[in-house]
Write a structure and sequence with these properties.
mainly alpha
Length: 148
């Protein structure tokens, strides 16, 4: 009888240990080789981020009533040469919208004494008119630049 109890005890131990191993194996996360990819922004995306920051500063200065005697950032001219995330987006529409944006921006920076919120809002409108047709993701952020 003692032997039977001992054999049953060992059998129960073996079976219960085997189930724990199965549970552990099931709860382990599945690991693949490429679980994490670092997103790298295109030149155009980086440029757009910088333009947004520049316009946030300009907006704040207009709201504070500070005259902006800075020159137009030369970085913004890279709009025509920066590599896009999707190269097919650089088409005639983009080229004309980029040219229109630069013209509006040049008009804003041309005369520091006439830098009104209307002229700044024209810059924001130029951004929106392009982004409404292509790459609509940043539209909510761009709208935050608007000065009522």
């Amino acid at each position: 009888m003692f032997r039977l109890g001992l054999v049953l005890s060992l059998l129960v131990c073996c079976v219960s240990c085997k189930k724990e191993n199965q549970v552990e194996e099931q709860t382990k996360p599945i690991q693949t080789e490429n679980t994490f990819k670092l997103y790298e922004m295109s030149e155009m995306a980086v440029l757009m981020e910088q333009m947004y920051v520049d316009n946030q500063r300009i907006r704040q200065r207009i709201l504070e009533g500070v005259t902006i005697d800075d020159a137009m950032p030369s970085l913004h001219q890279r709009l025509f040469t920066a590599v896009m995330t999707d190269p097919s987006d650089k088409d005639l529409f983009f080229e004309t919208q980029a040219q229109a944006f630069i013209q509006v921006e040049e008009a804003f920076y041309a005369n520091p004494k006439e830098q009104t919120k209307e002229k700044f809002n024209a810059i924001v409108e130029a951004c929106l008119s392009c982004h409404q047709k292509k790459c609509g993701g940043p539209i909510p952020r761009i709208k935050k630049l608007w000065i009522p």
